[in-house]
Every structure is written in C-alpha cells, then in structure tokens.
Design goal:
This protein is α+β, with helices and mostly antiparallel strands and 529 residues long. The chain contains 20 helices and 22 strands. The termini are far apart.
Length: 529
C-alpha cells in the first residue's frame, strides 16, 4: 500500500502531465505485476462494487474519534472530501499493516458478502494499521474514486514509455474485456486478448487556427472548404468484417455508438475513415450538449438510442482495402471517399461532409458567419494537394471558427486551484441577473494572467462571505466578460442554460455589477446567428 500511496502523492502534487507519466513509469518498474494490474483496473473504471457503505464508515469514524456529528460535518465541509476527512480525523495508528495493493483489493472483494459487524471489524483494524495518506487511499478503495488528474491517455502514455509498445495498441488492450484475476500483466500489455491488427487506427491530422488573410492562401480553386462540426472527431476502422471506432483522444468508443457500427457493416470494402460523430435527428445536426448524453455510457439503452440518435459525417479516407493512402493528395482521397459512399445505400445519419461551393474568398465570410444556424463551429480549409499529415502541420489545413459568444457576468464563488496554484483562487463561478436575484450560469478557470489571479485572490481573502468546503462565497462585485463557443437549453442547470467551453475573456473593471447580463439576454443567444 505504501508504494501505491507514494504514487498517488507524487501525482497529486503536480499538474504537469510529464511528471505524472514519470511517476507512473517509476511505479510500474518496481511494483508487483498483480499491483500493476489493479492500478490499471482502478484508473480505467474496472473497480469492484463497493463493499461497505460510506454512511457506515462515517458512523464508525465518529464512534472511534468521539466527535459529535456537527463537528464531523463541519470538518467535512472544510475539507470537501469524505475519505480525506476521515483520514485526517482518525487517531494515530498503533501498529503497521504492510499489505500490497492487490492484497488489499482481494480482501475488499471478499468483504462484500460479510455481515456489518465483520465489515466494521475489518475497517477499524485497517484504520489502526495505516498512516494518514494510506488511510485516505484505503477509504478511496472502498467508496471513492481516483479523480487525481490521470486520464486513460496519460496512463497509456506511461505504459508506452515503459514498454515501447504502440500507445493505440495499449489503449485497445486496457479498455477491452479483461479481468484482473484471469490475465497476467504481460498478457494485458501485449494484447493477447485482442486482435490489434484489425483495429489499429492512424494518428489524426490536425489543423491550426487560421492566422492569415484568406487571399494570402493563394487561389480559391486550390482549396476545398467544409463545415467544421462540433462533435467528436473519430476514425472508423473496418477490416476483415470487424468494425472499430476510435476517438481523437485515442480511446476505443465502439460500444458507445452501435448505430454507426450497424451502418458501416453495409460497406463491402475495408477502410479507415476520418470524420465527426454528431448527435443528429431528421438530417439536422444537434448541439454538442445533446451528444454529451451519449458519451461514456457503459450501456446504451433503446430509449437513449431513440432520444439522442447519433450520426457520422465523413471527412477523409486514410486506408482502402489494406492500402495506406495518406500520401495521396486530399482531392483524390475525397474522390475515393465519394465513390465508396455512392456504392451503397446508407441511412440518413451516415453522410459525406458537405463541400462549400465558392469561387471567391470573400464569399466565405457570410457562410462562416452563418455557421451557428446549423450548429457548426465555422469552416475548415484544406489544400487539395495536401497529404494526411500526422498531427499538426501549418499551411495545408486551417480551421476558421466563428467568433465566440460573450456575456458579462459577476463572480459569486471562488475556489483554490491545485499544484503550484493551490494557494490562490483560480476556479470561479459566475452569475447573471434573474429578476432581483442572481443565478449561476458558468464556471471558468482560464483566461487571466498570473498578476490578475493574484489580485483576485487577495480580494477574495478580504471579501469572502461564506465557506462550503474549499469554496468561498464572495460579494457580487467583480464583473467579467465570459466567452464561450455555444449555448443550449439545459434542465441540469438552475439557470436553464449550458455554455460550451466557457472561459474568461477579460476582467471588466470598467463595468458595474448593475450592468451585467440578464438570463433573458443570455437565452436570446441560443437562436442568435
């Protein structure tokens, strides 16, 4: 447990991805193979069901510490995390338990069917033999989650650095069907339980934001222009009658979109196609807010398939019948893609991306400005002769997004950051007017300079009204311009709206709080072109 505890500590004290990868690599080098398997399982959501209710653990902690409930709850409010609160309150250990991670997990799995008294005895014995950090980890193993800034991609990159195995193959291996008790670590990372050759994707070709005037790009006839859709970029791989879907985040998401798998089975040829996964209904592209309802679902129910149907707009083809054609000019790849799509009858939710018809650069301005009316983010400009690059390369592909929407809102909550910013308030909640009150509309933590963050933190320390765990309620006085990419109605938010990618555009020191936007003016942006 100490080794795993040290890893968690090393990860939590940094916000740098490379430092987290290095910590993971060091752990994998020295940890027992069974511990490595459990770490991968825990960090990819393959954890066993909770063996003890957290309400019972809280009750046992209060009994052990003799704390009244009000004081325990006050401590919980200050700390903001139940597992950490209990770890901090418990008395010093009086012996040492030296079990490995996989031994603890075996014990916890065996604890599930036992009586409440047996569970209490086990938990109290564990608490008395672990130090503060180890207790926190133990509490998390029972009832919490490891939300410590380690994504599946970070975990995979650490394994790739350790083993020199292709990152995409590792991603396929660790998120596939496997069980800690029936696979060895070497078998897992080498993918003995999968056929990676059939699913292997390619690195995505990415675009830079347009940084020059359109005429500087050359002749319009040398370019193909498409809409830039706001969904999930994906590669659909069809080889040997098997179909796989990869996200740009290098995650295998096949099971989340069964309707795409079914539609792609209509094709006879093998291919790797690049495109956009979108929520679509009646041939119209829905908002990203709708697509979110379909993401990261372990089980896609019939009702969800009906409520949020998903489609695919194909941009490019990278492989055809086993041949890598990424070096073929884009215009020719597009012709091949059109030929494939015209060869079979496809449902309406599987489409080629629409090519914008234009002859002069100036014609694109109005088309771009009108993008939001069809839930597009703007335009993509692709040189006809361009190959399908790996990653970003300036000059061949450009993204030309519409200008962000903006509102003026007042800060009402502030929360401290993590890592090097743990002493400053960097996470803010903003509100707009609703009648004579304020209603929260967005959270944002980017867009300010270090100097502005320091100034705001000093102001928060002087003007905090209430505290709720790590959050401070502040006087509604500081006004900020909030920029965002899109807006949609939402039943999940008190304001009734959800903003897409909100960030701070500027600190409006020139504007009094009386002049912030109202929820009515914010909602008007939903239909704004």
């Amino acid at each position: 447990m100490k080794l795993f505890s040290d890893l968690i500590s090393a990860i939590e004290i940094t916000n740098k991805t490379n430092a987290k990868i290095e910590a993971l690599v060091n752990y994998f080098k020295i940890a027992p193979n069974k511990d490595k398997l459990w770490l991968i399982a825990l960090f990819t959501g393959k954890r066993p069901s909770r063996p003890v209710k957290t309400t019972l653990m809280r009750q046992w902690c209060m009994e052990l510490t003799q704390l009244p409930e009000w004081l325990f709850l006050e401590s919980y409010s200050t700390v903001g995390d139940l597992g950490e609160t209990m770890a901090l309150l418990l008395p010093e250990p009086h012996h040492n338990l030296d079990l490995s991670l996989h031994e603890w997990m075996t014990e916890l799995k065996a604890l599930k069917p036992k009586t409440e008294d047996e569970k209490k005895t086990f938990v109290l014995e564990a608490w008395s033999g672990l130090d503060q950090q180890e207790r926190l980890i133990f509490n998390k193993l029972i009832g919490g989650s490891f939300r410590i800034g380690v994504s599946k991609k970070t975990l995979v990159n650490a394994l790739a650095k350790l083993t020199n195995i292709d990152a995409n193959q590792l991603m396929h291996s660790i998120i596939g069907n496997w069980d800690v008790d029936s696979i060895a670590f070497e078998e897992l990372i080498n993918g003995s339980h999968i056929n990676y050759d059939n699913s292997k994707p390619y690195p995505f070709c990415l675009a830079y934001a347009l940084e020059k005037e359109l005429p500087e790009l050359g002749e319009p006839k040398d370019w193909i222009v498409e809409q830039k859709w706001d969904g999930i970029r994906g590669q659909i791989v069809k080889r040997n009658n098997e179909i796989y879907i990869w996200s740009r985040g290098e995650e295998l998401v096949t099971k989340q979109f069964p309707e795409l798998v079914e539609a792609m089975s209509n094709f006879k040829d093998d291919f790797v196609i690049d495109g956009e996964i979108l929520a679509m209904k009646d041939n119209d592209v829905l908002l990203f807010n709708d697509l979110q309802k379909r993401l990261n679902r372990k089980n896609v129910t019939k009702k969800l398939l009906e409520d949020v149907p998903v489609g695919f707009k194909a941009y490019d083809i990278l492989e055809y019948n086993g041949n890598d054609i990424r070096e073929v000019p884009f215009a020719q790849r597009r012709e091949r893609l059109e030929s494939i799509f015209n060869s079979v009858a496809l449902p309406n939710h599987i489409k080629l991306s629409f090519i914008v018809d234009f002859t002069k650069w100036e014609e694109l301005h109005a088309i771009r400005d009108n993008s939001r009316t069809i839930n597009s983010e703007g335009l993509m400009l692709k040189q006809k002769k361009s190959p399908y690059h790996t990653g970003r390369k300036k000059g061949d592909w450009w993204k030309w997004k519409v200008d962000p929407l903006t509102i003026d809102a007042v800060m009402i909550y502030a929360q401290k950051g993590s890592g090097r910013r743990s002493s400053k308030y960097t996470d803010y909640t903003f509100a707009v007017k609703k009648d004579d009150a304020l209603v929260t509309v967005a959270k944002a933590y980017s867009g300010l300079t270090d100097k502005e963050i320091t100034e705001i933190s000093q102001w928060v320390n002087k003007n905090a009204i209430e505290k709720f765990g790590p959050v401070r309620t502040v006087k509604p006085e500081l006004v900020f311009e909030i920029a965002f990419e899109g807006i949609a109605l939402s039943n999940r938010h008190k304001s009734g709206v959800a903003l897409r990618f909100p960030r701070i555009s500027r600190w409006r020191k020139d504007k009094p709080v009386e002049e912030i936007d109202t929820i009515e003016t914010v909602k008007q942006l939903i239909t704004a072109p």
